[in-house]
Amino acid sequence: MAKIIDHGTWRLTPEDESLHDPGPEVLWNESYYFDFAAPDGSVAGYVRLGLYPNWGRAWYWACVTGKDRPLVLVADNDAPLPEPGGTDIRTGAYTATQRVVSPFGPVRIGLDAEAAVLPDPTAAHGGTSGTGTTRLTFDLRWDTVSGVYPYKDLNRYEIPCTVTGTVTLGDETIAIDASGERDHSWGERDWWKISWLWSSGRLDDGTFFHGMQANIGFAIPWPSFAVPPGGEIEHRGGFSAETRFAADGSPESSHLRVPGLPMTATPLAFAPVTVVSPDGVPAHFPRALCRFDTADGRSGHGWTEWHQPPGWRDHGWSHLAEGDPT
Asked: Is 87 left (phi over 0), alpha (psi -120 to 50) or beta?
């Protein structure tokens, strides 16, 4: 079994790769993420499955983008829940599957969908109806690199991975040989209360990294890890970030303080989604393929997200002023 860092207030077990009994909250959620990015940033994508059994729906998102590619997106926030005990989603527009081959080991992701084509990714905030479409398929495998990183105080874990397989866009088939990350979490998750930044990637020397910061009004040692080239996963802790936002709220760059590995994240291609609460409140979820540049001259690619619920500018975001070094 992959190495598990044990530094938390709960103990991760192989059974946690499976589904969990839901709590009583309407917004109790079980979430699986899978992302990938080619070493040169030419192609990247992600999948998220969010299950809301007490709300009677699932969220399913899948996309492909790249430095010189339009966004191709499936964003379904009213998907049917899978069959009990399963994680497959089937609708008239797409079929999505995921299989954990072995706990904390390989996962296979399949998708066959009619997806929206969005040359302007910000159009996704208004929904994807009425856009051009293309067939999007995934036949991809995430393989664990080094180990598993559970968060300290949350039912959540992250796994650095290599990603291989194929993606098809219309008549184009793309061979994927990339790096990425997958994660799994469960519990109440109110997307309309708290803003956050989450980031992960791989540098050109083979170093994997991850960091996350929620804006709760005060600083704590936020979770982060790194995997040195050919080494084992290392808990770093103490992550923080500062972001420069444009006037329209889109992130322009973030300074990521992964302990011992400070770097700048610069968005190259956005793949955003808007989510609406049970009482009709929208929140924006900018997620982007990023280039990462470290202080010592290394670079790489991966994903960063900056969740923006109502009033997010007042949530304690640390902003970079114009002219500040990054």
From this structure: alpha
The CATH number fitting domain 25-314, selected from 1.10.10.10, 2.40.370.10, 3.40.50.1370, 2.40.30.100: 2.40.370.10
Cβ count near 310 (within 10 Å) = 14
Judge residue 130's burial from the number of C-beta atoms within 10 Å of its C-beta, 0-12 exposed, 13-18 middle, 19 or more buried.
Answer: exposed
Q: Which two tokens stand for residue 202?
A: 């791989």
DSSP 319: B
pLDDT of residue 326: 37
User: What pTM, to 2 d.p., does this model score?
Assistant: 0.95
255 near 266, Cβ under 8 Å? Answer: no
Q: Is residue 317's pLDDT more than 80?
A: no
What does the pLDDT look like over 139-173, one tens digit per residue? 999 999 999 999 998 999 999 999 999 999 999 99
CA distance 58 to 80: 6
Q: Hey, where are the domains in the chain?
A: 25-314
CA 163, chain centre distance (Å): 14
Contacts of 80 by beta carbon, 8 Å cutoff, 6+ apart = 57, 58, 89, 90, 91
What gap in Å lies between CA 303 and CA 37, rounded to an integer? 8
Residues in contact with 292: Cβ distance below 8 Å, sequence separation at least 6, in sequence order: 201, 203, 256, 263, 264, 265, 266, 299, 300, 301, 302
